Request: fold
Amino acid sequence: MPIRAHCTICSDFFDNERDVAAVPCGHTFHRACLIQWFDTAPSRTCPQCRIQVKPSRGCPSLLLRHDALQTALRRAWLESRSQN
Reply:
């Protein structure tokens, strides 16, 4: 069964159509969703954990596309299961 990651801002799954961006805490979102979040939120925080995000750090695009992201998530999931 494939692992499908999604943007917690818009709830859509990541795919090859839209860029994915990350904040320093490691949470990932669609880049457009994250930019809109930063433009409209009263403070610049991660939409998921609310940690403060410095403006200079920005929201770098991840070069991972859907297939690579899915592979990375599956590997992380398998590693976490082997440690438990």
